[in-house]
Predict the 3D structure of the following.
Amino acid sequence: MFITVYTYRAKHGSAWATIRLHEELGAHPAWRGPGFHSSELLQSLEDPQDFVEISRFEDERSARETTRKREFTAWYARLLETLELGPSYGHFQTAVRSETGPAGRPEPEAASNTGPGGEHGYP
């Protein structure tokens, strides 16, 4: 499982626009392509302008293929218009999954936390 985690802050008065864009993305067939598992947008209870977006993919290749589609690139440009700054992000792999019962730690894999660079947070 490959997971992307984005954090960002909506411009003053743009929180609902940010939420609507994520609802739109969730309904878009291009986003629901092969290798996509789920995504969620979390809104801070302390400051409703702050968000965390978590997306889960089968693997890194699936995430890259999804986010490089023309439809996603256009959506991402619209999202940036609602934000104070571009998102901060990280790439993660599942270490422990508790919802399926007692799960052990997976074999270590190369972490894919590459830091800033490239389109949509990918180098």
Summary: Residues 2-113 form a domain with the Alpha-Beta Plaits fold (CATH 3.30.70.100). Helices lie at 15-27, 60-67, 70-82.
